[in-house]
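Aim 2 progress. For Bifunctional protein GlmU, the working sequence is reproduced below.
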Amino acid sequence: MSTRYAIILAAGQGTRMKSKLYKVLHPVCGKPMLRHVLDQIGKIDFTKKMVIVGHGSESVKACVETDAVCIFQKEQLGTAHAVLQARGELAGLAGTTVVLCGDTPLVRAETIKKLIDFQEKEHAAAAVLTAHAGDPAGYGRIVRDASGNLSRIVEDKDASEVEKAIDEINTGIYSFDNQLLFQFLEQVGNANAQGEYYLPDVLALLIQADEKVVACTTQHFEETAGVNDRAQLAAAEKTMRQRINHEHMMRGVTLTDPDHTYIDADCLIGQDTVIQPGTIISGKTEIGAGCLIGPNARLSNCQIGNESIVEQSVIEDSEIGHAVQIGPFAHIRPESIIHDQAKIGNFVEVKKSEIGAGSKASHLTYLGDAVLGCDVNMGCGTITVNYDGKNKYQTHIGDGAFIGCNANLVAPVSIGKGAFVAAGSTITESVNDDALAIARSRQTNKEKYAQKLNYRVNQ
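Predicted structure tokens for this construct:
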């Protein structure tokens, strides 16, 4: 098998994005555009992978991690100049080099491999991936000769009116004989409207030298579309979302309304789980089998076990067990663990707490910095008072404890196994196992006194 190399161009700032974030780092379905490209080329056996960085180089390097060698381009003088930065790594080596752009998040490994295989099968010096665009404005046009062979590529700003009418465009993805690539890169000039060194000019030079250059056409234009502004970013997001949703449905997940379901690229969902409309699943969320999620749920970086229900609720950076019921209108904040068969009901907020198996907080409860055992019942309106204005403290509640409605558990405090806290109590001291705790003042009724308050309207 031939030796293969990959170069990703990611040095541009992307001024049309009008953003402080560098273009290739803008996310599509929860993942930076550049990361999508890296993940796809990671499916192909490349000997070397290089990313050409420039603007925001440190941030871009952090995105690349150890998946490729980052090469710094001090001045951005065009695509040919960018590729030339890799000569220290590649010049003189035999093999095939693929050049891609870091702002094409929809490109797939299958398409890249098809281009490489086509070039190598044709024994060509280079192959360019082309597509037919409904609106080719902004793209380089593919000019063919009378026999239909590639003649040249003309950039949009340099094209004549006749050439601008051509709808076959250069996607900016190429496969080269590596030695010829670096031999002819040195000959590229910048006599054009932009004063830049264009990589497509290498193809023209190869053709002039009677080297074979071929065009490989893909039927999937949207896959090769570059992202240069926010409108194109939204279009890429929509296409990627449709692709992701389709893949989940093919794996046995039910999406009752795919057009209104939003799932990030790195999420995993088990078979027979049903995702209802308005649901947003982001980050590295993992959902088990047989769950019911939504409608209008938002899950971020969480793990959810099998046969759990999450209805109209928010879960962030937390772990949810099997057969758990959450919602409607619950909020599970980061670093929470909800064990099997627990119930977190409507208008319950859980923050950095562990809820034991079978325990229930059915409604209108705040559990912050709490550790609950198994089969604990938290009454309506109960609050773990975890903050004294400076520090956070924990509340511990033992197995089988019953906490009555409208109780305040002032941390740090422990409630023993099987203990009972009477409704309306404010608990400031620990409660032993099986004890009854009552902490409320005695009721006093003053007969006829309400008449003296004179608060009634229209007496």
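Residues 146 and 225 are 28 Å apart (CA to CA). This observation will guide construct design in the next reporting period.
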